[in-house]
Every structure is written in structure tokens, then in C-alpha cells.
Amino acid sequence: MGRQGPRNFTMTRAALTAPLFMLLWTALEPSLRADGAPPQPIERQPYKIALSLWCAPESRIDDPSRDRLVREWQILLRRFVGAPWNVVVEPPTSPLALLDPDSVKGEAFARWSNYDKVWIARLQPDPDGQGLVFVGREYDVATRRLGSLLKRPVVDWEDAPRELLAFSLDLFSPTAIITGQEGGRAIMNVRGGALEPASPRGEVVSKGMVFLPLRLVSLAKGGVQILRIPFTYLQVESASGPTARCAIVSALSDPFTKRIARPNSLAAIAIKPGASPLRLRFTCKPDGAPASGYILTARPPGQGEPQELGSTDRSGRITLRPGFASSIVVMRLIAGRVEPLVEFPIMPGESGDERVIPVDPLPLTIALEARVDALRDQVVDLVALRARLEARMKARLEGEDWDGLAEAIEEFKTLSPRDKFAETLAKLKDEAAHDQAETKKAVLTRTAQAEIADLQSLIDRYLDDDMFKAYVDALERGRGLAGKKATTKAAARPAQPGSAPGQAVAPAPAVAAPAPQPAPAQPAAPAPAPARRPAPPKGESAVPF
Amino acid sequence: MLIHRFLLAAAVGVGFAAAAAATAQDDPTQGAKNLLRAAPFDRVTLIDGTVLLVDPLSPRPLPVVDPAKARKGKRDAGGIPEEGNVIAGKTTRLERDQPDQDKDADKVRLHTLKPGEGEISDFEVKRSDIKKVDYFEDLLLQESERLVLARDFAQAFESCLWVKSRDPKWPGVEDHVNQILFAEGSRAMIEGDDERGQRLLRELLARKPDYPGLIEQLSAAYSKRIGRAIDLGYYSKGRRILHELASFAPKSLATREMTARFVNRAEARLSAAEGKSAPVRLDAMTEALRIWPTLDGVEARYRELFLTMPTLETAVVDVPAPLGPYAHSPADLRTTRLIYLPLLEYDDDDARKGKRTAQLVQTIETSDLGRRMLIKLRAGVPWSDGSRAASAVDAARDLTDRTDPNSPRYIARWAELLDRVEATDDSRLEIRLNRPPLRAGPWFLGPVGAAHAGSDGREASASPERPWVCDGPFIAVEAKPDLVEFRRQPGKGLIRIREIRQASPAAGLAALRRGDVSLLARVPPDQAKALESEPGIKVGTYNRPTVHLIALDGRNPALRLRTLRRALSYAIDRKGLLEEFVLKRPIDEGDRPSNGPFPAGSYADAPATPALEWNPMLAKMLTAAARKEIGGSPIQLKLEHPPSAEARATVGRIANAFKAAGVEIELVEISESRLESELRAGRKFDLAYRAVRVNEPVSDAGPLLLPGYDAPPEANCMASAASPRILQLLLALERTADWTSARGLAVQIDRESRDELPVIPLWQIVDHYAWRDRLKGPAKTTERLYDRIETWEIAPWVAKDPETSR
User: Which of B163, B183, B212 is the last residue of a domain?
Assistant: First the structure.
């Protein structure tokens, strides 16, 4: 209840309908060869790539140097990538050289529709470092999608060809068709996946790669609408040739739903962490007020340890620097101490555009949890004090210091009773249930219920009075026995002259009184063994002591 | 006679034995310690040279016996007088002397110390057989002489004390005491312990004023102290010492020299200011009279000049640094109103309708639920550089500067609230806000600088001397680390205000008592009551208490732990510290420990909130738990604090309490203006002692709980909130547009802060200020120190020494 359904997210619809999208079909569907031979399946189709490499004048790289760089890079391409890529290098005078990777729009690549991918790269001085840096971006013609802005520094000019190769591998985003689902995993057929690369570095798909799923919807007039499935990613778990088996990381309960009215199919394009800052803005429903002051955490998909990224500012915004994570992460916006308001996966640096995410601030739940936290603090303090007193009572009992034990018991009695906390907690719970019924909004979320249950178990487990009662019993018995002993001793002791001033001195008895019984080694009536403290909870105990 | 000789022989024999025993065993005369510890004895030397250690003789000292006189007396006593002894009417009797008594007086009973076994210890010895008696007292005095030479003055004095305890009138004991006092006093001064040396010599002076060399020695010592006081600028103290010197050596060379030194210095100060401007000459005269109040003819000139330029000198512990059109610290809040007019003097209807005078606004009209404001400004308020009058351009620039993260005037809340500002003409300003504000008034209470001046409020020029451009009743003329001076055109009332930074709160108090300053901005809490009863001094009260707390920086991962924050809170004995070290009296309604961030009595103070408990045991346990949470590494924090009286009195003890709980604390003292400015700018810290006066809980809650609440976004101050829950409540409060919700949220913040502990509340204190009665105008209670300063008046006054007055 508290975790707001991801289906409430506003879907960023890259709703692009154009005849050009037929290209996607032609690219992703088996195509007819020009010679009339059977069409090549997509897994055997290489990628036709256009590269524009422009060296900024500030980099002091002249044309011969650039040409040499390209030549050496092509040699490396053949050695490491080979068949999957078919790269054409645009001349320095190409219009592509004028495009700024940071601000370029997809429309600028209309003239390069005969390629599968267009890479624009710039070599320029590194503002953050001492050397140069490659800055570039990929444009996928079939999906009309601009990839993330990527950067790769070049510290030594001699390493430039190798860095350009690595940069190219970063830029390259293979495409795939989602052929189905199996055991909660998505199965993909990756284009060019069946082509043997020149080296393992040239593999089109490999374990750990992340894909962005797309839904291709056939429109009535023959066009195709490409929809990004929001907050959903596919992470390759295993790849066997062109077939990849992927984990579905999604904020949606059924991201590949079949409940779509029009004919559609699913495709995917790889996505890599970019160099753009990730800009998020959280707003409160229903008024759209900024969700400010909330903590954002991130963890790897699965059961990773969450890491705090920061808190939203006054306008509900948070900007995450590029490189805060190396791959896809699951983000969570937390209100109060622990209450998650929303949870979604995202790729770092995926886009520089701001994404607006509405959340339900759950004010009543957060207030309830704050009160539960305060109550838990009191319980924890009480547990600590009781533990200290119990240790003292135990020592007094073992030393048969009845007065000391009585004093400790009296001190124990001044502590807040268990019932007080139990009643307060029950009252809190009732009030929350009442609020929930009255406002028809979730108050007792899963997290809140877990907090309450945790505190209840803390009270039950640690504020048990049995041990205290056992000590009270032990005190009564111990004192009774001590009194008896004293009486016995007094009776057994022969009267001494003048021992009792003012009393007549009794004559010494002719026969000695029977000797008093020796004191037992252990207390005659040992205190019943205090009830054993229940074992601490298996998980993280809320009692820190 | 035979018997006598026998006894003498026996005595001699025993004496030898006793002397041998004394030498062989523990000779009580060996060393002062032995003598002081030894049982009293006398040393008797017989005519044959025998030395006997005997029990103290009695009477002490023995009466002097002249054998010839004694013989003559005896003869006289037994014969018939020359004039005959037969008198008519009287029975003639022959006077007989008392042979037994004479006999006894001629002998002395001796009881030897430590006789040998079986030996006789008691003897009677004829006085004529005794050559010399060394009494125990004399031996002690001799020992004291030796100890004086050995510079063991304590033992020497003890020796004399013992003599005095045995017989206060023992001959020579007083001389020995005097000798010790002189020797010890002289020695102490040679060793640099002047205070002690002078105390001893003054004691000697009281005992024996004509002790040889005493006056010279004492004069030299006093001269040294006076010289040092003059060098350090402690003229009042120096004069007091000079008066003491004059009391016993009025015509000595030293007295004359030191007097001349004072006078010369005062005259030099005067002559240095000759031909300079009137304020400089007035300051010179004031200082010259502080050096030597009775300087010939100066007082009259001073009074004359003072009346043309009434000057108020205020003692403060902190001056604005830097001084400009912004309010970052309590010192800024105190002074900026002197030199800059705000848009509104107070956030009330009178101010909005232009009924208040010390403001720029003539009227404010609001519309669109308060999102749109039309402000009409007063005409004819000139800037101090004479360039033009304050106009809408200045207000517009000020309001937009507050949205620029690079400006020192930046206020994050205002930046988020403001949509746009437009100066429609010279006197009209239109402000549009992004949302309806709860109250817009508090945003207009700050200083407004000139648009044509630099961001620091000074003239925008390349000149090294860039004067401030002001439009307030005063203009700033000087700002140094220890002095800020404001001045205004001659007229009625004060012309100059000089804020003088004191080394400590106690120094400020002393300056007020001496009369060096006429106003003390803040009286140490334990001194307020005492000061009220002092003649010539009045004490006023600030009408809102100051909340003292320890701010926490949540950017330190350890302080994000609720467990550690609770441990720190449990470790502090608020009531004990407040009563014992701050107030030095029991707490009361005004001065009391805090249980939340807002002062008790304000509408934001959550009712029925229990007090924060002091439990060192729980503190220790929670610290251990916190250490476990952060991986077991030791927790080391830095506690920064201002040099205020409360902070100085308590931070050491708080640090000790934290240390006892298991948290290592490093104390760092830093001036309040610097500390507050840096914290407000978003600088990272661990713990900071802050004293904040909460005027309006709803407006002040953010900066109170989060020092960098209004800092630029780059500082990432949102992350410095130790409690995310409280931060969310603060931001919700900031966006609230109705008073009912805002008050509810403020109370909720106060209540939840007790558990969340975004800060560690300490206590609240009602602050006082004090002034000398030469100053007329300060109210008994006020919101700001210089409230209604235009009505204040001050009379010239010279602090005369009590000795001179007498």
C-alpha cells in the first residue's frame, strides 16, 4: 500500500510515428538479399556504422594525425571486432562534424538513413584533466534513438587509437528482438550475435549488458509507433550466440503486458552508463508540490546494499553526477526514516533531461512511524536500564545481600511498566487504522506494519516481568530463611553473663544445647532460576545493547 | 660544699654521658627538620666545657645572676643598717634573709635527655657553674637564619612560628620574622613572582615600616608592576598600584617617576592627535584621561569637545566581519540597522502602512493571495555618498541578489519563493512570488544596500579606501577586527558609536565597571543580578530569550545515527551545568534547560513535552551501540564554539561528559560572527555551540535547526540535516500558506525534535545588557540593542580613581 504502484508513473512516450520506422522492421526482420538469396536472419546481419571524428582545433591535432589515428583504429577494429561491424569513416568535411554531441537532436541524422548507426565523436581538450577527451554519441537509425553522451579521456596521444577503440565499443549499442519470456526471464535475439567476432572484446552481446525494451505498435495507417516501456530494463544473465537470456528489472508489475489493443512486438536496444548528470524531480500527488527533503538511495538490482545518494532539494530535484554507479541501479525515495515512497530502476547518465516522478508523500504514515520510533527509543532505553538492574539483582542474590536486592527491586519498580508501552503502541495502531478508514488512504503501509510488529516483539521479548517476579520471590524466601537461621542461632547460643544488660543472667544449662545445624552450602531455598531471556531475534535486533 | 662538688662531678659525668648519647643517637640540632620535629630542649654549657642537652629550663630565660651583687646583697641583708635599727615605738628585730630561697635561686635543676640506662637524669647545678645556656627558642632562631640563607623560607618561617607559639615575646623573634619576610619577598621579586614578593614586603611594611632597604625594594617592585600595566594598557590598574606606592612612599623617586610616566604617556597621546580631526582628538583626549584622569586642563577641553560629538562606546565580544548589507551573525543583526534602512522596520500593519519611520517602504499592497506585491518606497532617503536617493532599483537589486547563489546575500528560501521583481519607476516595485507566502513581512526586515555599491556594501571603485554606502541613521567609517565605528551628521543625540571588541565577556564587564565603555551589549548571565545593584550602572533585558543548542552536521555519517545523537543528549546534565556554571544560581522561568528547539512560552513550544533526561549510563551504552553501527571505529568529533560566557563555562564540561560516554571531542574556539557566517554559508562541521534568538518560530525554525538552511545549493546543506524527518517537516512548514497549519507544524517540529534530535537543545537564557547612567535612552526591555537610538543621549564623563576622589 505504501509503496506506490509503478504503474502510476507517467510514461515518457517517445511516440514517434513515421514511415521511416518501417526501417526498423526492415532492419530487425529477416531481409531479402539483393541477389534474391534467402534473407539473412538478423543475428547474422552486421551493423553498418558511419563514424564522424572531428578534432577540435584546441586539441592541436592536424588532419594527417587524425588520418593516422583513424587508420590505426581501423586496424584495431579488424583485430578485435571484425565481422559484426561495418564502419565507414566520414571525412572531416562531413556535415556530421558540425554536430555537437551534447546538444544534437535526432532529426539531424535524417540524411544517414542508409546506415544502421551513426557515431559522432569529437576529440577535444579535457576540461577535467590534463590531456584530451573523446566525446561522442550514437544515433540508432532504426529506433531513432540517441544514445547516452559518452566521454573517454586520452592521457597519452600514443594511446589514442586504443582509446578510440574502447570508446567505439562504449558507443556501440546492439539491437535485439524480444522473442518471449521464460521463467520470469526475457529471451532476446540479438542482431549480429551470430557473427563471429575477431576477439572476445568484439562480442555483440555479453553477460551484464543492459537493454532498454521497446514496444513496436502497428498503427492503423501502416505506421509504427515505438514506445519505451518506462522504468524497465533487461540485464543479460547469459548469452549463447545470438540468444540472450535477460533478467527483467522493472518498476512495473507486468512490463510486457499483452493487454495492448493493436498488434505489437517487442524489441530492445542496449544502453550504457552515460556521462550526463541524471536529473530527477519528485513531486507530491495530487497537488504537484515538490517532494523536498526526501532521501534517495540506490542499490544494484537484486538484493544489493542500498547506498544513500542525497536528498531532494526545495524544488524536489536531485541531480546525480555521472559515474555514481557503473550500471543499472534501483532507486528508492525514502520518507521519514525508512518509508519507501517509490522504487524504480534507472541507468546512470542515461539522459540529461529531467524526469519528473510523482509520489504520494504519505504524511500520516510518516507521522505514525515517527511516533513508533520515539516509542521504540523509550523501550530500548528501558531495556538497557532493566538489564543493568537485573545484573545488579543477580549479584545481590548470589551474595545473599538481601537489603541490596530489595533496594534494586525497589528501583526496578520505579521504571515504567511494560503495559504502558504495550497500551501506547496499541493506541497508535488503532489511531492509524482509524485514520486509514476515515481518509481512505493507506496509513498502515507494509513498512509501518513491520515497524509496529517489530516494536511489539521488542516489548514482548525484552519487557517480560517474569524475571523480576522471580527475584521478588527469591528475596522473600531468602529473608525468611535468614530470619529462621538467626532465630535458630539465638536459641542455640549459650547465654553469656551480661550479654543482655538489664536481664537476669540465666544459669548455664547442665547439658549443652544441641549444636545448630550447619548452614547449607547453597541457600536452603534457592531462588527459582530466573526465566531465561528469550533468544534475540535472528535479524538485526532493535536493541543495540 | 662537698655534696655540691659531688653533685657537680656527677652532673659532669652524666652530662658527658648524655652528650655522648645525644651525639651517638639522633642529635636534635642536626638540620632544621630534625630541630622542628625534635622535642624541645635546651643546651647547657658548663664552665668546664661540658655540654648538656636538657629539658627546657624554667623560668625562661633564666634571670640574670651577678655573683658579686648577689654576695653584696647577702651581706647587706644580714647586717644592721648604718642609721641603726632601733626605732621608738617599734619592736626591734633583726631582719633575716631567707637562706632556703637564696639557695634555690642559685641552683638550677636540670633533667638531661636520654640518660643512659641506670644513670641519673636529674641534677641540681649551681648557676655559677653554668657557662652558657642555649635555649631551644634561640636554637630555632639560629636555624631560621641558616634556612633563610639556604632560601628555605617556609621552614625558616616555621621555625619562627614555633618560637612564637612557645613564647610570643621571645627576644629577637620579631626581628627574625621581619628578616624572613624581607628575604623571601626580595627573592620572589628577583624570581619574577612580583605579586607574592609585594605581598610579603607589604606585610613587612605593616610590621616595620622603617626596615632597612624595604621602601627601596618595594618601590622597585611597584615600579615594575606599574610599568607593565602601562605597557599593557591597563591604566586603571597601574594607577591603583601607583596609589598604593604613594601611600607608603609618597615622595620617593619611584613614585615620581611612575607618575611622570603616566603623565608623559597621556600627553604623548594628546600631542599625537594635535591638528587632526575632531573625532581623532576626542578619542585622544578620552584615552589620555583614561591614562591619567587628572591631566592638567584636559578634562575641560574633553568635555567641551565631547558635547559637540557625543560618542557611545559599546563593549561587545564580537563585531561584524565583514560589515555589509547582510545579516549573517548576531553582530550583523545588531549593527546593520544603524547603517541601512530595511524595507520594513517591523513585520506589522503599521510598518506596511508606512507609519513607521525607520524604513524604506511607504505602502505595500498585496493581491493574488499575496503572490503579487506592489511596494511604494519613500522618497528622499539619500545614500551617504551623495549620489542619489534610495529607490526601487536598490530594493530590486537587493531582492534579486538574494536569489543569486554567488552573492553573500543569498537566501535559499527567498530564491525558491521569488518569481520576479520589477522596478516600475524610482519609487515603485512589483514583486511576484511563485506561491502564496505564509508571511512576506520577514523577508523585508533585512538591510537593503545601494544598487550602485559593491556586493560588500562599499563604493564600487578601484580606490583602496572604499567607503560604505549607507542610508541608515549612521554611516560606517571604520571596521577592524576589534573595532567598528559608526558616525552621523551633528545634531541632537549620539554622533558616534564605537563598538569595541573585548577579549572576553569578563573583560567587557570590567570595561563597563571602569567606565571605559558606556554600554555592554551582553552581560554574562551570572553577573546580571550583581550588576543591577551597582551604583551608576543600569541593566536592561532583551525581550526574547536566547536558545542555546549544539548544532549537528548530518554530513558526518556518525551524526546521522539517531543512537549517537541520543547518546550525546543523554550525556549532558543541562540543569547542573546551567545552575552551577552559567547562572550560578537556581534556574527560574526565564533561564531553564530546554527540551526542544523553541523557547518555552512561545506558541511553537509543544505542551507536555518531557524534559531531556541526563543519564550518563545510557549515554555510554548508546555510544557503544553507535560505534558498533559504524564498524567499531572510535567516534571523534570537533565542537566549535564562540567565546561567549556560557560557551566558555560549559563546553569543556560538555566535552568531558561526551568523553565519558565514549566520544572524543576536540574543542575549537572561533569568533561568533565567523562561526555563524560560515555555518550559514554551508561549511561542514561536526558540532557547533550556537546561541540563537528566536523572533518568529515559523520563520526561524529552518536556520535554527539547520544552520545552512539558506545556503546556496552547492553547499549541499540539505544533507547536513541530521534528521531527515525534521528536514521534511521544515520544508513542509516553508511551503505552508495558512497560519493554523504552520503553527501546528511548528509544534510538531518542536515535539518530534525531542526524539529526532536534529540539534542537541541545551538551555534558554534571558539576556541582559547594561549601561552606565551617563547614557540616557536605553529601555528596560528591548528587542534590539540600539532600538530608538535616535533618542539616546550621553554626557561626558571621566572615570576618576577613588583615591583621587577621596
Answer: B212
Q: What residues in B contact A336, CB-CB < 8 Å?
A: 724-725, 728
Tell whether B245 and B272 lie within a shared domain.
yes
Burial grade of B117 (CB within 10 A; 0-12, 13-18, 19 or more)? exposed
Q: Is B89 helix (H, G, I), strand (E, B) or coil?
A: coil
Rg (CA), chain A: 38
CATH number of A278-361: 2.60.40.180
Domain of B287, in residue numbers? 231-308
Domain boundaries, chain A: 6-271, 278-361, 364-468
Residue of B nearest to A309 (CA): B719
ipTM of the complex: 0.73
Nearest CB to B724; choose among A290, A293, A314: A293
Q: Each residue of A500-522: pLDDT tens digit? A: 444 433 443 433 334 444 444 44
CA distance B574 to B572: 6
A407: CB partners within 8 A, 6+ apart: none
Residue B21 has pLDDT above 80, yes or no: no
Question: Are B719 and A337 inside 8 Å of each other by CB?
Answer: no
Q: How confident is the model at residue A323 (pLDDT cuts 50, 70, 90)?
A: confident
The stretch A136-161 carries a mean pLDDT of: 90
**Same-domain status, B647 and B693:** yes
The predicted pLDDT at position B102 comes to 55
Q: What is the pLDDT of residues B232-284, one digit of tens each?
A: 888 988 999 899 888 888 888 889 999 999 999 999 999 998 888 898 999 99
Residues of chain B with pLDDT > 90: what percent?
Answer: 60
Judge whether B23 and B116 are in contact, CB under 8 Å.
no
CB A298 within 8 A of CB B687: no
Among A232-236, A414-418, A493-497, B357-361, the minimum mean pLDDT is found in A493-497
State how many domains chain B has.
Answer: 5
Which one of A341, A371, A381, A383 makes the best mutation probe of the B interface by having the most chain B beta carbons within 10 Å?
A381
B680 and B515 Cβ atoms separated by less than 8 Å: no
CB pair distance less than 8 Å for B618 and A384: yes
Q: Residue holding cell 576529440?
A: A123
- List pLDDT tens digits, range A395-449: 998 888 888 899 999 988 888 888 899 999 999 999 999 999 999 888 999 999 9
CATH number assigned to the domain comprising residue B687 = 3.10.105.10
Section B95-108 average pLDDT: 60
Of A290, A310, A545, the CB nearest to B719: A310
Question: Which residues from B are below 8 Å from A541, CB to CB?
Answer: none
Shared-domain flag, residues B241 and B261: yes
Give the closest residue to B702 by CA, choosing from B732, B737, B744. B732
pLDDT of residue A331: 94
Is A336 within 8 Å of B629 when comparing Cβ atoms? no
